[in-house]
Design brief:
- This protein is elongated.
- By secondary structure, the protein is α/β, with parallel strands linked by helices.
- Helix content is 33%, strand content 21%.
- The protein folds into 2 domains: 127 residues, Response regulator (Rossmann fold, 3-Layer(aba) Sandwich), CATH 3.40.50; 200 residues, Rossmann fold, CATH 3.40.50.180.
- The strands form 3 sheets. A 7-stranded parallel sheet has the order 8-9-7-6-12-13-14, sandwiched between helices.
């Protein structure tokens, strides 16, 4: 699936799909205020969006979710199946599950309208919208095929040493669908806690954790400040705060910290992974998945220095290769793997750090 190498000097042609003529005009004006972006068409509903994608071949589609005749989710699914094109959802829908479903269906990212379906204050998110459209133009929109990643895994097991392994996973753009596929492949009973940083705004991570939990043998939930980390549970960092691990008398505990952003993001994988390396040492595993930027590289380096295992997703299977590419470039990755092989590699690393087997 690797990220595209298009020259950003090339004009990015965008299709805008929104049932509000006013929102079409506002989005068009904001996008075309940036040199190198041109709106080549507009659509009033999902059916028109599908027709325009076929006729205009835009580089990126900016699409609302709540539209008449055919909504954005149905149109997105059709586009991904028939003519995969990078899509950025721009929606006033308050139900986070609809937005997360869009990401699962293949949308590259989303931007929330500040004040609902008709947001005349959309200029407040102009920079975010433009940045995500530019990023989407570089991403490979090819959908992840569930059947193609069903790798066989060992049965559930328990650690003979009783040692708790900590797995820290970092993901950003393309992460929701990638994490969804990984979690579906994991066996139950893993003697590890999994700690996830997915770059996502506050208000979405609880629903994201619930969706992962429904489709995974692993117990997944949004992390809470002060809770003791338990084996067999996966904790998703809440949007808007850093998540770190600290060692207390009763064992490792999660702490949520409202300290400044790191790598321009909060939560940051570097914050999480650095704390995991400090607390778990050689019983730590760090995994960096698809995403823009370099978050996770420094944290992965600390896990490696502590004697833990480090894994990065390869370029071909990454929707955006920024984060794993940065970690690989720093020389802190033990194994570079396609998405197909990451669930089994995670299990193998856990078996090793739990003292059951030697690493492969």
């Amino acid at each position: 699936m690797g990220a595209r190498g298009d020259d950003m000097a090339v004009t990015i042609n965008v299709l805008v799909a929104d049932d509000s003529a006013l929102m079409q005009r506002i989005i068009t004006k904001l996008l075309e205020s940036e040199p190198g972006i041109r709106v080549v068409g507009t659509a009033d509903d999902g059916r028109q969006a599908i027709e325009c994608v076929g006729r205009l071949s835009p580089h990126v589609v900016v699409m609302d979710i709540d539209m008449p005749n055919m909504d954005g989710l149905a149109a997105l699914q059709h586009i991904m199946q028939q003519r995969p094109t990078p899509v950025v959802m721009v929606s006033g829908v308050s139900d986070a599950s609809a937005t997360l479903r869009a990401l699962e269906l293949g949308a590259i990212d989303f931007v929330a309208k500040p004040s609902g379906p008709i947001s005349i204050d959309l200029y407040e998110v102009r920079d975010e919208l433009i940045a995500k459209v530019k990023l989407a133009s570089l991403a490979d929109p090819a959908p992840i095929e569930a059947e193609s990643i069903r790798a066989p895994l060992p049965p559930a097991f328990q650690s003979p040493s009783g040692r708790l392994c900590l797995v820290a996973i970092a993901a950003s753009t393309g992460g929701p669908q990638t994490l969804g596929h990984i979690f579906r492949q994991l066996p139950s009973g893993l003697p590890t806690a999994i700690l996830v940083v997915q770059h996502m705004p506050a208000g979405f991570t609880a629903t994201f954790a619930e969706r992962l939990d429904r489709h995974s043998p692993v117990n997944v939930r949004e992390a809470r400040d002060g809770e003791t980390i338990r084996s067999g549970v996966a904790y998703v960092a809440p949007g808007g705060v850093h998540m770190a691990v600290v060692k207390e008398g009763r064992g490792p505990v999660l702490r949520m910290e409202e300290t400044p952003p790191v790598n321009a993001v909060r939560p940051s994988a570097d914050v999480l992974m650095s704390s995991v390396a400090l607390v778990a040492g050689r019983s730590s595993v760090g995994i960096v998945l698809t995403g823009m930027g370099k978050d996770g590289s420094d944290g992965l380096a600390q896990i490696k220095r502590a004697g833990g295992a480090t894994i990065a997703q390869d370029e071909e299977s990454s929707i955006v290769f920024g984060m794993p590419g940065s970690a690989i470039g720093q020389g802190v990755v033990d194994r570079v793997l396609p998405l197909l092989e990451i669930p089994a590699a995670l299990v193998d690393a856990v078996r090793h750090c739990a003292g059951e087997v030697k690493p492969q």
